[in-house]
Amino acid sequence: MRRTVFNEDHEAFRETIRAFIAAEVVPVYDEWFAAGQAPREFYHKLGELGVFGIEVDEEYGGAGIDSHKYEAVIYEETARAGVSFGGSGVHTLLGLPYIKMLATDEQKKRWLPKFTTGEEMWALAMTEPGTGSDVAGMKTTAKLSEDGTHYVLNGAKTFITGGVHADRVIVCARTSAPREDDRRFGISLFAVDTKSAGYSVGRKLDKLGLKVSDTAELAFVDVKVPVDDLLGEENKGFGYLGTNLASERWGIAFGAYAQAAAAVRFAKSYVQDRTVFGKTVASFQNTKFELAACQAEVDAAQAVADRALEALDAGELTAAEAASAKLFCTEVAHRVIDRCLQLHGGYGFMNEYPIARLYADNRVNRIYGGTSEVMKSIIAKSMGL
């Protein structure tokens, strides 16, 4: 299918990323999978490659490119190879937008050079035990000290991707009680140094999929956060979170489409090589029809993902459009990957085959970044329902 979303620069970057994956990731990926995370030093390699600095201004060591298209290439190439870059995706997709949108010049000078090199990895801590998608219901608090020099942070977060390796975490906490007419009021964002006293990483969570992505529980006991590390204005955090959810949901949508495309590629290769009853599996009509149907769904998901990408780069992607893209692409990926696993037969259930890992990794797409049910609510509201 003809695409117009990428140009020659993106394709040159694709070749670089593909070669990097082949040399630095594929040979050791089984070790990462067994360990349950990518090694910390790998993120320094991504920094050296320039992956973290693409959208960072040149004055802080980045390339100054205001586009998510290079991220999109990484989604496609990691899926194509059946690997991931560990928890580093949240560093750029979730961490960077908040820094660019909210950080002062002084904060950017402190944070962005180390962000770009991978010396300082970032994560986002929003979800809490017992609250799930109800962000306004969070219990973590940050109280300003009497002398006004710092906040005292107390509470807990869970499902924090990148939480094990993170050097700085954007923590959402209550600085004021909610108003009777606005329960979203009173949330603030803090860039918390993970070396702070009272900050601790709890369990590294044992997940169904995304085994190479470190996901953790975090706890804060009287953590002192300097007032200079407040991101944006006090009590306005919920609005900031809403602003960046569109880009996060685009990322999940595009990643899901890329996974579906990879699944078709894996299945096609397998059925062409696998022989049963003296014939290749690919020669059976059912196989051809199944893969043809999957390819049609992938084509549609690609068009939706590309359209959302163009809108995001233009600054025009609405909450409803992002929700629609996420809902559609993740549901397509669910159907396609399941059918492609079926074509592998019993081998599709073995983790040594990328389709099995892809099947497990894909499941969370319909949960994180807002569940499919939440996406439907957003879309319905935009329809006036």
TrEMBL record:
Residues 235-383 form the Acyl-CoA dehydrogenase/oxidase C-terminal domain. Residues 7-119 form the Acyl-CoA dehydrogenase/oxidase N-terminal domain. Its cofactor is FAD. Residues 123-223 form the Acyl-CoA oxidase/dehydrogenase middle domain. Keywords: FAD, Flavoprotein, Oxidoreductase. SUPFAM superfamilies: Acyl-CoA dehydrogenase C-terminal domain-like, Acyl-CoA dehydrogenase NM domain-like. Pfam families: Acyl-CoA_dh_1 (PF00441), Acyl-CoA_dh_M (PF02770), Acyl-CoA_dh_N (PF02771). Belongs to the acyl-CoA dehydrogenase family. This is Acyl-CoA dehydrogenase family protein. It comes from Streptomyces yanii.
